[in-house]
């Protein structure tokens, strides 16, 4: 089989490997799809202490969300979700797999990055009817879902940020009322003339500063990502430094909460049910790009880091 490992140079590369032998309590899974996500840059750069995902070292196989079918045994052919993507076959502990629910019309829709967005906008920075919501990094895998979820949860106006004109147009097609590009401060003030009530922050950096300047009193901020640091051209990818005006945070009584859905089973189950309902009713989309073949995965990852795709990037294994 083939898998993607970290080469001695630190770059991901396709290598051939023997078929894994499942041990006690494991099943052999033939992967059919896996996702490409920007945070791998941080893991390849040495990771961050305390983060839920471990660093990747030379020789390690990359990992991430995958869907595959069980090979052999009484459950042969059953589709399951797990975290051992970036390889054609995986030996996965039974405790680490979840059956793929038939509630969604396409198994690939299970890769929709809505759990974090839904959890943040219902728990960390809950939306109230009529709120103006600002989603930074609104064209990525999480942001494309967050803008739609904000609207479905009752937001009155949804504004997003992105770095390119073609992504801005796609975001408007998804239902964003306005899209701002950098520099943000003046544009965000015009796009949200009544101020920002909720920030869903994927980016940090200048997006966070602009949100503070535009925030209303008692605004709620959910910080879920730090792409400004992770994808910085000259940075390490392991930090997200930003200088903010803390005086404004105090005066406006802004609440900032770092949020990760992580292993929150309650949020995941709630999101899965609502996503299936909204998707079947045609009220939400899953923007994604399909990349064919594991040999294309390393370039797909570089393209994600460079911001060349819209929505979630999924590698198909045929």
TrEMBL record:
<dbReference type="InterPro" id="IPR020843">
    <property type="entry name" value="ER"/>
</dbReference>
<dbReference type="InterPro" id="IPR013149">
    <property type="entry name" value="ADH-like_C"/>
</dbReference>
<dbReference type="InterPro" id="IPR051397">
    <property type="entry name" value="Zn-ADH-like_protein"/>
</dbReference>
<dbReference type="Pfam" id="PF16884">
    <property type="entry name" value="ADH_N_2"/>
</dbReference>
<protein>
    <submittedName>
        <fullName>NADP-dependent oxidoreductase</fullName>
    </submittedName>
</protein>
<feature type="domain" description="Enoyl reductase (ER)">
    <location>
        <begin position="10"/>
        <end position="315"/>
    </location>
</feature>
<dbReference type="InterPro" id="IPR041694">
    <property type="entry name" value="ADH_N_2"/>
</dbReference>
<dbReference type="InterPro" id="IPR011032">
    <property type="entry name" value="GroES-like_sf"/>
</dbReference>
<dbReference type="Pfam" id="PF00107">
    <property type="entry name" value="ADH_zinc_N"/>
</dbReference>
<dbReference type="InterPro" id="IPR036291">
    <property type="entry name" value="NAD(P)-bd_dom_sf"/>
</dbReference>
